[in-house]
Amino acid sequence: EVQLAESGGGLVQPGGSLRLSCATSGFPFNSYIMRWLRQAPGKGPEWVAAINSAGSSTTYADSVKGRFTISRDNTKNTLYLQMDSLKPEDTAVYYCANDRGARGQGTQVTVSS
């Protein structure tokens, strides 16, 4: 069974940082491109970042470029998203997803003073 479980969300002040994790199982993690998505209240899903299977190539949405860093540990089947300089507009539920469309339940990130 394919499983993805996000963690690490929470409430943070503007300018703060959070590190999200996505623990996976049930598929060959080290063979898949992985992505982070987010969905803000009342809006559709937004792609945030992607990383290739080896972890050697990353891409970012313009809205997070220079502030977020996607990474992975293929020995732990885990995906990460380091989020720095957070802004209120980053408030959303964050999801990890594999290249076949499977995704987790999400973790809430709220940026507010």
List keywords for this structure.
113 residues, mainly beta, 0% helix, four-stranded antiparallel beta sheet
Uncertain residue ranges? none
Q: What would the principal axes of the Cα set say about the shape?
A: globular
Mean pLDDT metric: 97
**Any idea what the radius of gyration is?**
13 Å
The SSE order reads EEEEEEEEEE
Describe the structure.
- There is one protein chain.
- The protein is mostly beta strands.
- Helices cover 0% and strands 49% of the residues.
- The strands form 2 sheets. It has a 6-stranded mixed β-sheet, with no helix packed on it. The protein has a 4-stranded antiparallel β-sheet with strand order 1-3-8-7, with no helix packed on it.
- A hairpin with a 6-residue loop joins strand 4 and strand 5.
- It is globular and about 40 Å long.
- The model has no long low-confidence stretch (mean pLDDT 97).
Summarize the structure.
With 113 residues, this protein is mainly β.
SSE blueprint:
Blueprint: E1 3-7, E2 10-12, E3 18-25, E4 34-39, E5 46-51, E6 58-60, E7 68-73, E8 78-83, E9 92-98, E10 107-111
